[in-house]
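FORM 7B: Structural annotation worksheet

SECTION A. Query
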Amino acid sequence: MFKSTIRIKIFAYIFSLTMLSLVVISMAVYFLLFQTLKNNETQNAVKASDKTKQSMEFVLKLIASTGTQLGANNELSEELHKPYLPNSADYIVGQNKISTMLQNIISVQGYIKGIYVISPKGNFYTSNWGVKESELKSLYASYVDNGDKAEEYFTGIHNVTYHPALKSNVISYIRPIFDLESSKILGAIIIDIDYDLLKEMFTISSIENDEKVLVVSPNAETIFTYPNVILDDVIKNYPVVMTEKKAQINGKVFGNDSIIISNTVEYTNWKAIRIISSQKIHRETNMLEKTAVYVFFVFLFICFAASLALSSALTNPIKELNMKFKLVENGNLAARASIHSKDELGELSHSFNHMVEKLKISIDSLLEEQKKKSDMEFQILQAQINPHFLYNTLDSIKWLAVIQNVSTISDMTTALINLLKYNISKKSTTVSLSEELESVSNYAKIQKYRYGDIFNIEYSIEEDTKDCEVLRFILQPIVENAIIHGFENVESQGMININTKTENDTLIIEVIDNGAGMDHKVLQNIITGDISKSKFSGIGVQNIQERIRAYFGENYGLSYESTPGLGTKATLVLPYIHH
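SECTION B. Predicted structure
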């Protein structure tokens, strides 16, 4: 089963966050930058493409302006008002004058092949002699006869059949000449435009703008096209280019994404349809997009590597600490973490090492306490069979037997037997207070036979303390020290008072004597155990203190108060526990 480690989690969080940031930034760059660039490129391409239409409109404007100037020419108007007398000298002079004027116009506008003026009456003026007058009049008779409804317009492409010398195709501009007073039509102006020259100009502009162009009349007759391919499918697939005055749509032409632009050519009802390849327009932007994609994946790899490195840097110390914890768990207290960074992990490593060090010290201390406890129990066992004590006791019995043939020998022997039973036969560490006090009583009875009646013991024992649990053999050494040290060289009657009471869940036992007392130095030696054991009990005060604290804790123990010449008070503080 897959284990989701903290390293994997941190890696996933960091990598997800950087990925999200990278994607958001990339999307913002794409929509705000690349889309803006593409829109700008499209608009620039459209503006550049407009030059083709503008070049054509410029020529057509010149033609229309020429027609307008001729229509307003007074000399031409006067000639058209004259009656049509073909062979009259006056008509021939006027015809020559107007023809000369028309030839002058052609001489400065090289894209005009010919200019003709005809009237309903039959007047005819031309820039090119040799033109077939009858054919030309027949071609435009319907326009002249249309009267007041005649309008200016450009024709489609047609061949000049009425002039044998001209073999080229032309586009003709036709406009009426009206009488300003009567608004009657005086005649019509026909201007033939060199189609090849227009096409050349149109083609050069299309090549410069790298576009396909189609110019069609309202009835879909092709007027210009570049390149020389059939673009009729564009009109079929996108009819809006013919119905709207101005249109710009995105579509496919010959399977390629393209921008299709449709405009009405001024001065005409033609449609200029331009087709610009989207791929060519956005060539540089597409290259930038590809570069951006490469950069994105490079940054993605960098994010992956950085996330992996960062997660490793963060989790390696945790991994090391985890391993050290397991070593300590298995009992290896020599394990130490070696993380030296100045951060929380470094502090945690220091705390771990400090904790293990303290744990080792605590365990060593506990082992030492157990060793001391064993030593104390061994000392107690030795004290229970103290040869010196047994020697003195038996010596007393011997002398009593010699001197007195009385029952006291039996009493002393009985006390000795009971004392030996308590010290040797008892196996438990704790006893009841009443049992400990009975042992002290037997001990005191024996000592009184040894030292005589130099001391007495009085007991003030509260009833509810008799069953309290105490450590075995903690009162006898205190009483022994009182007898040996307190009543030595004291002439007055010695008195030992043993009192018990309870206070705040504690048992307090006081051993008070009226003996010689001790100064501060001797008292400190007794407490620390630094005193001759021939003068004091073999079980020292320090031993009792350590036993109490080993069994009951540091809050309990033995304390002494003593004043030279006034006596000594030993106080035992134990927990109040019923045995």
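SECTION C. Observations
The longest strand covers residues 169-178. The chain has 17 helices and 17 strands.

SECTION D. Sign-off
Analyst initials: ____
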